[in-house]
Specification:
mainly alpha, 16 helices, globular
Amino acid sequence: MYGKAFAPEYQGALTTLSVNASLTDVLDAGTRQLREAERDGRHGEAARSGLAVAEAQRRLGRIGDADRAWKASYRAARQAGDTAAMAWALWSGGTLARQRGAFPLARRLLALAAELGERGGDVVVRGYSLAGLAETGRIQGDYEEVARLHEQLLAEARRRGEARHTVWALEGIAQIHRNRGDYDTAYALFEEAAGIAAQADDRRGHAWALRGLADIVSVRDGDVERALGLLSEAERTCRAMSLSSALAYNHKMRGNVLYRAGRYAEARDLYEQALAEFRAMSEPRGQALARLGLTKSLARLGRDRSETAAELASLADELDRIGLRHAREMVARAQKELLDSASQRTGPRSAPAGVRVEAAR
């Protein structure tokens, strides 16, 4: 059995905040508490409340503010001599670096956070930091390297009965199986994650699990309406909690579902929306995936072949620069799919029955 989900990044005077609190509410409460702590010279409390501010800013897509906040939290923790609080600040900074596509920096910060967490006796920040390293590797496509770490962290989370971390680990393992084409296993894992998240009232984890289920329902079963229904349910949570990044990924997935169904004009509109959202929060991975979906949709709608080729080449260069190997493989498949004269289409057309059309994940 799992207890009610909690947010360990809400610390000090903010521990009463719900894991489901709106990020704008978290930001307001954290900012008030941070100012009080700084005014009174309470460096430890400033570090803890500053962490919540950094995480709220990051999840709202305010990259510059988040960067300043986690660094200020780290400085305050160092002044207080609080090793665990230093680890939490570095975890936040590493997570932000991953979100920005700075993967080498993310790895350095998260590894240091795990080390300081162990030194400071905080098993939770150590676990979260190792999870961040695992997620960084998974996003880059290093499945062999991180699969075992995901499984280790899942076992630890289950042993502690920590619902939120269990849900995260299940979703990460599910995504690896999905990307390898093992849809049945991925579906079962996403389904378990959704069930635990619902039981523990982890609305954020539940929204991500629903997105994963929608992906499988679309690509494996071709059930467009059910997939869109799952995404609509997840979107309501994203909007209620002001989850900007999760909402953008939700819109991109909706584009994927429509693309696979041959509804290219609708997919184009969703990819354009998601691309604008990712650009607003300076999230390069999301931008690249939305660009890929948009390029494929425009090609299916009759875009000039040379323009498609140029955009895919530009995307390939960008993904090589960032270090997203799995996404780079997706671009290579798109180049083969769209630029092969035998498969090039000149206008919108639904996919033939029984044929699965792949989309950017």
